[in-house]
Amino acid sequence: MDLGGGSTQITWMMMQGGSVTLRPGAVSLPYGAAALSRRLEEADRAGHHAQVELKNEIKQAFVDAYESLDVPKELIHAAKENDGFSLYLSGGGFRGWGYVLMNQHRVNPYPVPIINGFSVSRRDFLDTISVQEAARDEEIFRVSERRAGQVPAVAFLVNALSEALPPIKEVRFCQGGVREGFIFQTLPPSIRILPPLATATLDCAPSSTSALVQLLQSALPQFPYNAPAKHHILAPANHTPTILSTDLLTAFVHALFRHRSFTKETRAAAALRCTTTGFLAGVHGVSHDDRVALALLLFERWGGAVSPTDLGFLDRMERLTSPGTVWWCRYLGRVAQLIAGVYPAGRVEEGRERVGVEAA
């Protein structure tokens, strides 16, 4: 969904094997943040019955819009298997809502100042009372006075959506506009499917990236990814998180030597912040989970020690992910530190390997 000032659009999107399929055209409805604010003010003056009528109007409009979308059966089936759809939100009205949710996060202050890739559960997204109270009583980063004034209208829309749309499991906030989307569509499929972080780090990649990635992967025990959740926390050695994908490890290896020109006391700290305010902060299409994992990996690769000024930031980054993921990032980061010491130029000569890694 996209929420502008005068209208909101809804459509479906599906990705299979790296190929993105979009419905030809979105359904547009006259419930933008500014337009709905005016409608809501009129309804407030008219009384409670007018508010009920407006909410019913919006609900019915979205029910009809969803029916007209002709959502593919395979997408509906995937949503049923995953306990609901993922709802991607763009537009200034929704981004303002996202920044308020970020301000209300259990990890506070939230360490990733980027709305793109921020995700929340259905329950948090629908907590309209808390969001409205925060927008009214607090000064929030990236929420202007105008956006704060539109929060009641967005809350009204969110309440109506919760009753009109099919089950939503998670909500992801996006950043970008028509210009970025148009330019992205002009790229060939072979470029569009490239993983963002691995692509953004290509300029500093060592010559033997593939061999170094294989070394890291050989350090990971081949435990099943569907291990019980309790093992993820109590015994992380029995479960390697799926977030440590080949794409993420490739980006890790690409950036393995990125901070070696820094002084010893700043390398780990600079690496820790590289995905939030450093050289990878501007990468689009990256979840906050991936940003945190890559930052923790690079932080540990440089020794995992920071000055007291960065300890609070480190703690908040670790609290954004699971204890199991933190454990594996520490482990794999230290393995990478060893490998980088053995191959200081990032070059592995075939047939003349200096080290091998094996996980029992």
UniProtKB/TrEMBL annotation:
<feature type="domain" description="Ppx/GppA phosphatase N-terminal">
    <location>
        <begin position="2"/>
        <end position="188"/>
    </location>
</feature>
<dbReference type="InterPro" id="IPR043129">
    <property type="entry name" value="ATPase_NBD"/>
</dbReference>
<dbReference type="Pfam" id="PF02541">
    <property type="entry name" value="Ppx-GppA"/>
</dbReference>
<feature type="domain" description="RTG2 C-terminal">
    <location>
        <begin position="196"/>
        <end position="359"/>
    </location>
</feature>
<dbReference type="InterPro" id="IPR050273">
    <property type="entry name" value="GppA/Ppx_hydrolase"/>
</dbReference>
<protein>
    <submittedName>
        <fullName>Retrograde regulation protein 2</fullName>
    </submittedName>
</protein>
<dbReference type="InterPro" id="IPR003695">
    <property type="entry name" value="Ppx_GppA_N"/>
</dbReference>
<dbReference type="InterPro" id="IPR057512">
    <property type="entry name" value="RTG2_C"/>
</dbReference>
<dbReference type="Pfam" id="PF23566">
    <property type="entry name" value="RTG2_C"/>
</dbReference>
